[in-house]
Predict the 3D structure of the following.
Amino acid sequence: MMVPVYKEPSSNKTLYEFFGIQDGQSLPLLITFSFDENEKLHFRKTRLTEESSEDAYNQLKKQLQEKAELLRGFSAELKEDREKMFKELALFDSANEASGVLGKLIGAVGRLRSATGI
């Protein structure tokens, strides 16, 4: 369950620094991360843009399902190269963001057309 935090817990600051998060205002985020054989951290932050906790949960669930499906399709060789794997995840996130923007644009055009009768 996700609930708003009104006073930033000081224990969060360490975690924020670790993942390069400015403050709690940029939350909620889904952070996928892994360490490679040299203990180098690789991670990808995905912004959850929904307003309510229920919408954020649904978006989180959808993101996790899509990323899990994508990871299952990766070759064993790609899974061993964490840097390349996270670059692939970044491309996947970029494509999802672009399709979301396109979907919103198409919806806006449809509403405009119906409002104007065009």
The longest strand covers residues 29-35. The mean pLDDT is 78.
